[in-house]
Write a structure and sequence with these properties.
nucleotide-binding, transport, ABC_transporter_C-like, transmembrane helix, ATP-binding, mainly alpha
Length: 353
């Protein structure tokens, strides 16, 4: 009995270790199927787009700061004449940056969809060739439903869900990095607290990712019986009324609803906990350092407002980054399952006419 319990504990620990690991091989398989040209184009377009977005916000901060300083300086010097501020240079630069940002957003969207289409076509054609050339013992040992799921559900996940999740993950990651870079540029003192904050975020997301994935699967698994029971109740409403089973079906519907609501409540609470906890730490540190620097006249009020604005958005960016990472981990399971079928050895036709 002691040996059996120790084996169960070892199996449980190995399962938990596998759940905490990111399927990097499946991610590498997906990115390698995109090709040599599409992947650099996708990364370059994302970097340029977020650089332009930061430049737009920085231009607005300088524009506001200079416009306010032109109006305040004559009042402080008790001058009767008020200088007029020329908005045309800033408006031209702002318009050019906005147009460039729109073009880069379009290029990024096209690159993401093009990458997803190419990966799907390549994996589907490779899987089809492997299945057609597979030996007969493969079909005797593999259920037909499993093969159909690879061609239907998994290919649908790779075709529709992974490109969108990949785009959201890269966007939220770059937004978070750009926000931290802006805060560090505005207040260099923030860099002192950035290292322990990054370590804390790493360990928090490591445990949150496992819990979020399990809660998402629990939410999906409890939603299906609810929808099935509701559709069956509507279709058989006349039979239910004939046998006077309204109370029984109503009670069953309430039980399914409660189960789904509990899973949704825990998932929402976990997401809010991640957002509020990390975001509060970032906002507190950024606010203290920004106000301290502003009191000693080291930075302008416009840059302080820019840093605090990005600090308030870091919590949302971190939340979406971790949630998209958990979704990507679930969706990469489709690539992993298809990659397992791609290792099937083909039938040996040597010596046959």
């Amino acid at each position: 009995e002691e040996v059996t319990e120790s084996d169960d504990e070892d199996n449980l620990s190995s399962v938990l270790h596998q759940r905490a690991k990111m399927p990097w091989r499946a991610c590498g398989k997906y990115l390698s199927a995109a090709g040599i040209l599409l992947l650099p184009l996708l990364l370059l377009s994302q970097l340029l787009k977020h650089t332009v977005m930061v430049a737009i916000d920085y231009c607005l901060a300088l524009w506001t700061e200079h416009a306010i300083s032109i109006k305040i300086e004559p009042e402080m010097k008790n001058c009767s004449q008020c200088m007029e501020f020329d908005h045309s240079p800033y408006s031209k630069v702002f318009s050019v940056l906005c147009c460039l940002g729109i073009v880069l957003c379009l290029v990024t969207s096209i690159a993401v969809e093009w990458t997803g289409l190419k990966v799907t076509k390549k994996l589907h054609s490779s899987l089809l060739n492997k299945i057609i050339l597979a030996p007969m013992r493969f079909f005797e040992t593999t259920p037909l439903g499993s093969i159909l799921n690879r061609f239907s559900a998994d290919c649908n996940t790779i075709d529709q869900h992974i490109p969108a999740t990949l785009e959201c993950l890269s966007r939220s990651t770059l937004l978070c990095v750009s926000a931290l870079a802006v805060i560090s540029y505005v207040t260099p003192m923030f860099l002192i607290a950035l290292v322990p904050l990054a370590i804390m975020c790493y360990f928090i997301q490591k445990y949150f990712r496992v819990a979020s994935r399990d809660l998402q699967q629990l939410d999906d698994s409890t939603q299906l019986p609810l929808l099935s029971h509701f559709s069956e109740t509507v279709e058989g409403l006349t039979t239910i009324r004939a046998f006077r089973y309204e109370a029984k079906f109503r009670q069953k519907l309430l039980e399914y609803t409660d189960s789904n609501n509990i899973a949704s409540l825990f998932l929402t609470a976990a997401n809010r906990w991640l957002e509020e906890y990390i975001g509060a730490c970032v906002v507190l540190i950024a606010a203290v350092t920004s106000i301290t620097s502003c009191l000693y006249n080291k930075i302008t009020s416009g840059l302080v407002g820019l840093g605090l604005t990005y600090a308030l958005m870091v919590s949302n960016y971190l939340n979406w980054m971790v949630r998209n990472l958990a979704d990507m981990e679930i969706q990469l399971g489709a690539v992993k399952r298809i990659n397992g079928l791609l290792k099937t050895e083909a039938e040996n036709y040597e010596g046959l006419l």
